[in-house]
Amino acid sequence: MAQIKRKKVSNKAVRKESFKKLMHNKKFLIIASSILAVVILAAVLIPVLIAINTKTKEKYDYFQGEASTYEVAFTENGVKHEVKFQELSYDGIRMVHEYQRDLHIFTFATDFSSFYPDKAINDGVDEDSDEYIALSRIQTDDSIFSQLCKLQYQIDEYNKKEGYVSVQLFIVDTSKASNVGLVTDSLFISNSENDQLTLFTYMDTDDLKTSYIVKEGQIERSKSLNSTDKNEIKTSIINDAIAYIKNDFDDINK
Questions:
Q1: Are the beta carbons of 62 and 117 closer than 8 angstroms?
Q2: Considering the entire predicted model, what is its pTM?
Q3: Each residue of 99-119: pLDDT tens digit?
Q4: Using alpha carbons only, what angle is made at residue 184 by residues 180 and 186, rounded to the nearest 5 degrees?
């Protein structure tokens, strides 16, 4: 009987032959080339993107951290007082007002990503660079921040006198999309067509109150408690709010 002899083929030889066939397969070569290109591109782009992100201006939050301790300009003998601000969301303030109707609420809302009250923001930045912040803008923000510190200090003093929290100042970051609605809400501003991202406002138990009256003899003048103009907030609005608190939230007779 004839005997069929089978030739043994090693696994090594099979793998070698399979590899040769794979290397001549056009589809495989296209896929492999694409993967290699992606790897090379990633190796080049990742360090570049990291470098770009590193150079991006850091976003500071001046109402937290070290900024929560600030020298209030009007204090006597250079005494340093600690004032702490409370950040809250648009919806959060609405909820507080809804459930604490006896609370006096001041609100300062602004875009934190473009609020620069400290000239140190320009350290190491060339004056011709787009990253350089104009000094006039820094001075305006610095003055507003200083005024807010005075306001918070006065609120703290008033609450101590009352023996409970009857007045609060809330800070809102309008760089967050969820907070932008605050600057057009009639609960916070009389002009619903406002297109600014900065707002100072006051609410009493009867909702929005935009002003109060100062009587000087027979003459009555209105003092505003509501504004979207940074210069107005800096020069008069917050100071008038402080005077209003000192007079127990009543019209002022001079």
A1: yes
A2: 0.73
A3: 998 999 999 999 998 898 887
A4: 130
